[in-house]
Amino acid sequence: MAGSDILDQIELGKGLRQRHMNLIALGGAIGAGLFVGSGVVIGDTGPAAVVSFLIGGLITMLIMRMLAEMAAAQPVVGSFYVYARQALGPRAGFVTGWMYWYFFVVVVAVETVAGGRIVQLWVPAIPLWMLSLVLLLALTATNLVSVRSFGEFEYWFSSIKVIAIVVFLGLGLLWVMGLWPAATPGLAKLVDYGGFAPMGWAAVLASVVPCVAFYTGAEIVTVAAAESAEPERSVSRAMRSIVARIIAFYVGSVLVVVAVVPWSTKSVGVSPYASALSVIGIPGVATIMNAVVLTAVLSCLNSALYATSRMAFALTSHGDGPRFFTKLSRSGVPRRAIILGTTVGYASVVATYIWGDVVFEYLVNSYGAVALFVYLIIAISQVVLRRRADRRDPGGLRLKMWLFPWLSYATIALMATVILAMAFLSATRSQFVMSGVTLVVIMTAYEVRRRRKVTVGGSPTSGAAFPPKSAARQRLGMGNQRCSTA
After folding, report:
1. Which of 149, 254, 312, 451 could disulfide-pair with 337, CB 3.0 to 4.6 Å?
2. Is Cell division tagged as a keyword (predicted)?
């Protein structure tokens, strides 16, 4: 049975509302990278880290706009995995889907360990593996209940993160304006410690690479679109302004840090938010920031479990994986796919516990550039599908990429530049190489699968794109294209 036939018979639940979609988009890109990882970028670039985050944010905004155009026209299970199949063929779809699945399985492992380490600060007597297991099982149970349960948890997790950032920005503004007790107003610290870009502008451009990676997660809202009551409207509303707010949060937060604390202060590299709040004079800073970072970690873990399960469901529904994982619960949740992500993620945690940081470092390096590969494929897919849509129904799209096609081409060039930069920068070269190994393994798996299908059945059957399931998709002309052959 072809993958499209299976999807005609099964359907995920529709439990997500507009408020869930907004916070999924907003919170998806706000993780521990902002609260902790931004300190590393500041240490590598100085106050000019603000520019690095701004450039990385603009690149991400362009990618998200391209993805939003496709998702609003065709809100389907699997999102960009399906678009890659339709635009570039089954091989590109297979590689895109499994790269994204692998990326978030590693995120599950990384965030599980990170969450356990934070909790262990409060209960040091309990082993790390046990704390990690409790956190993972708790959020797995949340995802197993229903998509509404996932949405509610993500809504409140993201709300806490957003409130924390808004409060931080407000305190920073009062400090810079001299309206806070004992404040040293002004922006002198941006240039007083070696200049605005003490490490040079090459370092500023190099830091764009990790900054783009920090923004990863905003695209989850397009994966969730298929489970919302009004998918086209939900994606359009969520993506129009959310990414701009994310950029404002990142850039604004980094600006506050370097305006309040000398960028070279050792504590900035460890915990930039805590360092700034200590200078401002907020009591209990360590406890506050640990609680906020734990919320961010749990939010990322929650989203990662969701993303892995829905991508596995889409992949297996198209014959790009074992059909066993297409089974849905009565509430429309792919529980087997959720358990798969949980099992693989915790196996990584156990391996880390047994063999130490060697495994953990391998995992981190092996997925560092994977999300960037996916973003590049998203951009290329948008150009192909947009041209098809314009030929079939010029002006039919409700949400469009700005200044098409030139801005789309520029986005592709920027993403390719960021990926190539990883190969030449010493700080990111190992991530580029190991992510390349991941890509080669997945491509090899596709070739093995394709040859087996040709041998057994005569020809691969996973090349068909989604058939048009609604008048909207027929009108927009993006849902009824057949994939090219592999």
Report:
1. 312
2. no
